[in-house]
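Notes from the 1:1 (GR / supervisor)

We went over the backlog. Supervisor wanted to see one worked example end to end before approving the batch request, so GR pasted a single chain during the call. The sequence is below; no edits were made to it. Supervisor asked that the structure be written out right there so they could see what the output format looks like.
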Amino acid sequence: MGFGIKLKVWGDYACFSRPEMKVERVSYDVITPSAARGILEAIHWKPAIKWVIDRIHVLNPIVFDNIRRNEVKEVISSTNVKKVMKGENTQLYQNATKDRAQRATLMLKNVAYVIEAHFEITDKAQEEDTPEKHYNIFLRRARSGQCFHQPYFGCREFPAKFELVENELPVSYYSDQTENKDLGWMLWDIDYKNDMTPKFFRPEMLRGIIQVEEP
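Structure output shown during the call:
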């Protein structure tokens, strides 16, 4: 196991979409491990390391909110793009008025988590890619608020703020919880090496803490 880190992340809204919902977006109750990994990778990632999520602390109460918004049903055809690249006289635009559709989103409101994670050295590491080096790079970037791109909670319009936890962990709203809360089947991550196969696990939350185990 590599060096462990604790990162607090929070934001006004989040939507970790369930894949079984084909049209309307419906969020999981809490952040998924893959979304948590994406936040860490936004702060620091190189081919030499792989982030592994160990625990997720749910700090705020789980509250849902509903919104409806206009979206487009289609994207610009890649076939038309290729035709234009070949010099053919093809219209290349998207008519937002014509392709507009109204969809509902069941999202989370006022979210806050602590992500506990570690990284592992991959087979792409070079001689200079030591665990100490990448651990210190992450600490420096997290302390100063640096990131490759703005981290987000499921959708890019829901930005995530972050800060490194170096002292005591924040108290969870569910700290007095005495029984496990079954969160149902949840996406763990995508197995990119095996034809992008999704992996699912069944997490339980106790006192606001979710132990993340590879399925």
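Supervisor's comment: Residues 131-144 form the longest helix (14 residues).
Batch request approved.
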